Amino acid sequence: MDNKVKISVVQRAPIVGFENMKKNMNESMNLAHKAIKQDAELIVFPELNQTGYVFENRKEAFSHAQPIDGEIINQWIEFCKEQGVYIADSFVEKDGANLYDTAVLIGPKGYIGKYRKTHLWNNEKHYFTPGDLGYQVFETPIGKIGLLICWDTWFPETFRILALQGADIICTLNNWVYTPGPLFDELGRCMAVYHTMSAAQVNGVFIAASNRIGTERGAKFLGNSVIVGPNGWPIQNGDIDSEMIIAAELNLSDSRKKHWTELNDIHGDRRKDLYDEMLGYLKK
Predict the structure, then answer these.
(1) How does residue 93 score in pLDDT terms, banded at 50, 70 and 90?
(2) Which segments of 63-181 are extended strands (E)?
(3) Catalytic residue among 117, 124, 171, 216
């Protein structure tokens, strides 16, 4: 496994509506080609990149849904095999009568794995089923990769579980939208960026956060895609409202060193004997 990987995070505006799904895929592939010309090895797209986000009801969400072996995933599989690249993307997954907000990881050898969003935001609860797969780290030739989706990232346990499994990079696929309080600070950063920075720092991992832009059925999305280093500081930032690709070369050695000093280890210093029981993880 090489220590260096070139990653690109795509910031774009998917379009809701079944009739727009082909357009979403074509535009995504065009942007992926641009990222590949910049030597990207791993490309990360926003949440529900293939479908848009603001569904009117469950019936409409269902009309956008496909199984994991459907056309969307199969197109990405062919693309990744041809281009020798890894893709993290998101779509509405249909599994029997259930719909999931699902992220997938696909590579040069095909489908690698999926993650189903476990924390549902607002109206998502009307049409999605909470994810049932837990939190997995996928081991690939370019590093150990974890996936999270948007509202998941407000729960620190999600990052910690992936980090404790050895994740080098955590990809978060997002639709950051209006939340209470000021939307941006004087640096133009939304609060979600600070959640991302904090999670990277306290877990010692790279985080690649892709967010969408634009307005969809009255919902305004915040941009601010970001790649953050294990020290918590942004390496590359996206702006508020432009379609763009941000990119960086990551040295995964930086995420594998958990010692901050000779005597301090960010994971080894955890006092599980004290707080696991308090958090409800253990019973007396």
Answers:
(1) very high
(2) 86-95, 98-107, 110-116, 137-140, 143-149, 169-174
(3) 117
